Amino acid sequence: MSRFSVAARTARHPAERPVGDGDALLVAQGVRKVYRTGELSVLALDDLDLTVRSGELVAVMGPSGSGKTTLLNCLSGLDEIDGGHVLVEGNDLFEMSDHARTEHRARSMGFIFQSYNLIPVFTAVENVELPLLLVGVPAEEARERAVAMLGRVGLAHRERHRPNEMSGGEQQRVTVARALVARPAIVWADEPTGNLDSAMAAQIMDLLRQLNADDGQTIVLVTHDPVIGAAASRLIRMRDGRLAGDSTTVPPADAGDAMRP
Ligand SMILES: Nc1ncnc2c1ncn2[C@@H]1O[C@H](COP(=O)(O)OP(=O)(O)OP(=O)(O)O)[C@@H](O)[C@H]1O
């Protein structure tokens, strides 16, 4: 077991949301997305159906241009769709006003991007507490929860560091802490290990696996890396805007360790 796994276990929070009961958390039905540029149009999602259950760790793979990032952006409500429905915890994202969708996203979703997207003038703990402050958690409680979350990702000693004072792997662990601190229903990650070397990538995936296993945190991640994909509990393959494969596996408990060079 890695030191991150130990930290995650020993500093565990009580779950604030019932998890892992196999209920459908997200249901996408007949989702279509068309990009139009002048006369050209690209059908990026083609009548796509997908159900994600509470507690799943889903990897989305597929060739470049197959629609992985579009799927993430549309199913999280970051981008508009051209047809179909996306229900998150029973709420149809695209029947809400833009304002309501933004609020719903802030309360029920966390995001991890390849490029970290941390606020450069904020310290690690200020970055992590931000999602809590945005949904009205009192400052003192937000700070306590952010500090605890940084401990869980193995960064207690970096609390007061700014992003440019941390390694890429450390910055990505801060973004993991920021994405999970509010215990969102679902965390979306687009190439979360894309900027990291293989050892750092393995640490981040190990951390995500541990948070998924300990808290039942639902995570959907897009990756090009077959090693990362194999460490997920469910692997979805995309081709031409459609699902081309969907397999559920139970990776061995030490899959994270096996990824390490
Ligand atoms: N903003 C956009 N405007 C026009 N076309 C777009 C836009 N974004 C994506 N596309 C097109 O939509 C299709 C799906 O793109 P998407 O980025 O979702 O694929 P992807 O599988 O994530 O690719 P990659 O692995 O290269 O990141 C591609 O044909 C792409 O060229």
Automatic annotation (TrEMBL):
GO cellular component terms listed in the entry, alphabetical order: membrane protein complex; plasma membrane
Keyword match Transmembrane helix: no
Keywords, sorted A to Z: ATP-binding, Nucleotide-binding, Transport
SUPFAM superfamilies linked to this entry: P-loop containing nucleoside triphosphate hydrolases
Domain of life: Bacteria
Pfam families: ABC_tran
GO molecular function terms attached to this record: ATP binding; ATP hydrolysis activity; transmembrane transporter activity
PANTHER family the UniProt entry points to: ABC TRANSPORTER ABCH.1 (PTHR24220:SF86), IMPORT ATP-BINDING PROTEIN (PTHR24220)
Designated name of the protein: ABC transporter ATP-binding protein
Organism: Actinomadura barringtoniae
